[in-house]
Amino acid sequence: MKLSLIVTYRQRESHLRTLLSWWKQQSVLGNLSECTMILVEADKSPSQWINSEIQYTNIQYAYCHCPEVFHKTKALNLGLTLARGELVAPFDVDLIPIGNTLQQHWQMAMLAPQFLVTGYRVMVEKETVNFDELNEVIEQTSIAPEDRATALWKHLIRQERFGVVPFFNQNRLIEIGGWDEGFIGWGGEDQDMIERYLQEGQYLCRSPQLVYLHLAHKPNQQWYEASLIESNRKYYYTKRQGDTNI
Q1: 52 Cβ partners below 8 Å, 6+ apart?
Q2: Rounded Cα distance, 79 and 47, in Å
Q3: What is residue 99's DSSP assignment?
């Protein structure tokens, strides 16, 4: 097994059904033979419909009791304990790979282990898409927030490293202790992980050949709240100040 995708989930049924539909379609085409999905639901109680939807697939379901704020990093670490792929990637439930992005992504990552290979995302104003109309949908997309002027300046000048769907080496993730569970709610954990993961002689690589479609959604309570975002950003920058390697 080359790749384990860890999908964290909470009350985004339309997104998850869309992703599962894409996964089943690609599995029938034989495009996921080297890949498995670990679906980690973090909520007050498990969703009863999921297990029937993933029967006869290479998707493993795990439940993480999370009655309050969505604790994504805790769910990711649970997924990491179950991952068996040489490469492990956190994969948001609202992403759909465009074309053969996923296959190209793991091929590039396997060919160049000194690079942490990541991609880009483009935004669409729809919660779900018809895969037969995907080419038309792509033409209506917009650039993601991290590639707009202010955020891009931080990436280029302040070396705040970011990339969509980084393909991590599983052993290296375990070595550094997985995701920092001090990040609760939205933001900061992805940049923090990339910066802790990279060692001397390793580099972040963002490839324009790797493009993911980001499905629209409204801000979620107990996940994308201003107070949580502010707390996570403060925690992230406090950690950066204490890291002499950055």
Answers
A1: none
A2: 17
A3: T
111 located within any domain: yes
Q: What is the DSSP letter of 132?
A: G
- Domain harbouring 217, CATH code: 3.90.550.10
| 74 neighbors 182 (Cβ within 8 angstroms) | no
Q: How far apart are CA 162 and CA 146, in angstroms?
A: 8
Query: Residues 154, 233: contact at Cβ < 8 Å?
Result: no
Nearest to 10 by CA among 208, 217, 189, 241: 217
Domain assignment of residue 246, yes or no: no
* In a domain? residue 216: yes
Counted domains in the chain: 1
Q: Are 69 and 223 in contact (CB under 8 A)?
A: yes
The pLDDT of residue 245 is 52
If residue 20 lies in a helix (H) or strand (E), which one and from where to where? helix 13-28
CA dihedral 183, 75, 130, 3 (to 10 degrees): 110
Q: Cβ distance 6 to 91 under 8 Å? A: yes
In angstroms, what is the C-alpha Rg of the chain? 17
The residue-averaged pLDDT of 2-18 equals 96
pLDDT tens profile 169-222: 999 999 999 999 999 988 899 999 999 999 999 999 999 999 999 999 877 766
What pTM value is reported for the model? 0.94
